[in-house]
Design goal:
Layout: H1 3-24, H2 40-47, E1 50-56, H3 64-67, E2 70-77, E3 82-86, E4 95-99, E5 105-113, E6 119-124, E7 146-150, E8 159-165, E9 169-171, E10 175-177, E11 181-184, E12 194-196, E13 202-210, E14 222-227, H4 235-241, E15 250-251, E16 254-257, E17 263-268, H5 273-277, E18 284-288, E19 291-292, H6 296-305, E20 312-319, E21 322-329, E22 331-332, H7 333-336
Antiparallel strand pairs: 1-2, 1-4, 2-3, 3-6, 4-5, 5-6, 7-8, 7-12, 8-11, 9-10, 11-14, 12-13, 13-14, 15-22, 16-17, 17-18, 18-19, 18-20, 20-21
Length: 343
Amino acid sequence: MNTTYWFSKIILLRFLITIFLFLISFPNILLSDQKKISTEEDIRKIYQSIVKIDSIVPPDARTAKALGTIRGGNGVVIDDKHILTIGYIVVEAETITITLPNGGVVPAELIGYDHTTGFGILKTILPSKLSSLKIGDSDNLNKEETLYVLPYLTEGAPSAVKMVSRRSFTGWWEYFLDKPIYTHPMNSSFAGSALINEFGEILGIGSLYVSDAAAKGIPSPGNLFVPINDLKPILDDLIANGKRTSDVKPYMGLTSNDDTGKVMITRVNDDGPAAKAGFMENDIILKVNKINIPDTENFYKTVWSQGGPGTLLDFEIERNNQIISLKLTTMDRNDFFVKPKYY
């Protein structure tokens, strides 16, 4: 590591610590008798758990077109062996590197991924001494509490934010969260960043930029964080089995939106279940197993309620003003991904 790098990092660390101390100096409501973050030493200790993640994904990966082949973001250490991040940074990656708090770079592997939540669990391939943060309670949040977004030091500055809403989120990639954490103002280095409370506990992992954090349709730029409580029931499964083994959502292999008031297919993934069933872009989903489909959220919930991967579904769609019936057999999304080749 060259001298210029370390000098720059020391200057940056001092600057960010100054910012962080300024942020936490504002009076906040006392939530308990726990020790709050209050000193430079507290902040330095917290940053010993924040890492930088870089990954390279092969061009033939299923997610390469949508997410690119060179990806990067942040992560947080959750125990002495494992790092938590947002999965899209590392899913299908053939090379993953972790930049540790001391600037050292080590190879890592994705040992657990859950599409339902979006969480990814990493483990360094070479032994590394990791300092972890405590997992908090994301259900115990109020709008008066000051929270902090923590990217890796060279990726972005920490920021103080507020939780401004807890409403559901539906993603076009067959994704639904019941109660994500929406924060304001925005931090541009959100991907995989830890959201912590005043006691240094992890409450969520950064996933998205949103333009309407405070309320749907109301301009209020912010971020969406996946709540840490969504990790608790599946953490052991992800570490032991690489994926969840219960409540596995079936995968159709399509993207959709309901901006027109109808659920329209915007893309059919090559070689996926929808492609094999004969679905096409601009098809309108009318019914699934004779159940009316009014919007994308209900589309996903209806499909998921019919059974797990391998379920046969009867679709009624509209194509070029004609009503067509199609049959689709779902699959496990993890079986659709390109399997990584590690060191």
